[in-house]
Amino acid sequence: xxxxxxxxxxxxxxxxxxxxxxxxxxxxxxxxxxxxxxxxxxxxxxxxxxxxxxxxxxxxxxxxxxxxxxxxxxxxxxxxxxxxxxxxxxxxxxxxxxxxxxxxxxxxxxxxxxxxxxxxxxxxxxxxxxxxxxxxxxxxxxxxxxxxxxxxxxxxxxxxxxxxxxxxxxxxxxxxxxxxxxxxxxxxxxxxxxxxxxxxxxxxxxxxxxxxxxxxxxxxxxxxxxxxx
Length: 229
Known about the structure:
Blueprint: H1 11-19, E1 25-27, E2 39-43, H2 45-59, E3 64-70, H3 76-90, E4 95-102, H4 107-120, E5 124-129, H5 132-144, E6 152-156, H6 160-168, E7 173-176, H7 179-194, E8 202-205, E9 208-210, H8 218-223
Parallel strand pairs: 1-2, 2-8, 3-4, 3-5, 5-6, 6-7
Antiparallel strand pairs: 7-9
C-alpha cells in the first residue's frame, strides 16, 4: 500500500515493484498511469474542492474574490482539490477566482504568497488552503495584511491541530476526509489480491464539512482524525 508523492516521479519505482510481482494498492494519491495496481482508494478530491467552495459560499454569501493556496504542483490529490474548487468558483458569478499560489508545503512560504496575493487582489474574501501548513501560513499572511476576520480560510483535513485552529478562529471551516475508511479498505483490497479474490479497481470515500457551528454534531465528531487506534 503506497501513497505516491508525485504523479510522474513515483511512476517508475512503483511500476518496477508491480513488474516484480508485488501487489500494489494506491492509497489517497495516484499516478499518471495507475494500470497494474490492484486498487485505487481515495477521496473524490474534485468533489472535495467543490465542497470547499460550498463552505466559502456559506461563510461569505455576498461573493468576492477567492484564492487557493496549494502545496506544489504534481500531487494528484491537491491538484484535483484545486481544480474542483476553481471549477465551482468560476461557475458562480458572485465570485471571482484569482488563481492558485504554491507554498512548497512550507507555512512560511504560504504566509508570503498570501500576503502578496492580498496586496495584489484586495477584494479577496476567502482562501482555500489545501493542507494544514497552507492554512497556517495563510492565516499568518492574513494577519500581516491586517485582515484577520475579514478574509475567511477553508482548510483541508481534520487533524487535532486543525480542529484547534478551527476552535481558535484561525480557520473557519474544514473539509474532512475519511482516512480510517481509506486505510481499512486498502487492507481489505490487499488481502483480496493476495488470496486470489476479486478486487475493486477504484474506491471513493466521502467528505464532511466541519465548522464551529456543527463541530459538536455526531457527524463532525466522527469525521475528526484520530491519532491512535
